[in-house]
Amino acid sequence: MVLYFGYGSNMSKRVLEGVRNIHPKRSQSAILKDYKIIINMPGSNFIEPGFANILPMKGKKVEGVIHEISETDLARIVASEGEDYKLVKVKIKFFGKLVEAQTLVFKSNLQTDLPTSKRYKKILINAALDNALSEEYVNELKDKKAVYYPLLSEYYAVMVYFWVKKRAK
User: Among 49, 64, 89, 99, which residue's CB has the most CB atoms within a 10 Å radius?
Assistant: First the structure.
């Protein structure tokens, strides 16, 4: 078993279990110190323009969820996220103990937020609420810029769902 820190859509039990077919043995909300969340992974088009990433930054914090999963499940998460992410080891508290967990960091030099889709932003906010992350952090997610294009956004959301589901197999 390995520990994996999810800070984007992988905070969501619904996404992990329903889309990626990953069932953690245990999960717990956690805070990763000296990192900040940023939407700087470019999406594939104007409908899904950006996705979450984390950057080292002294004095900041990223709230998310640590999942205890199998190495096979971690490999499936990595495959579904794409080759532009790299696994990074981080120190974080899990059930009261300081442990080493792995998380994904997108390889980017972009230091500013891109907009994200309304669909993806909703996943982040709902996952933060479901995992009882702080009100301050939920508000930070709510403040992220988002785009929405009627009909196109709904159609593309279905396409993204099936793309991720296929890559997670």
Answer: 64
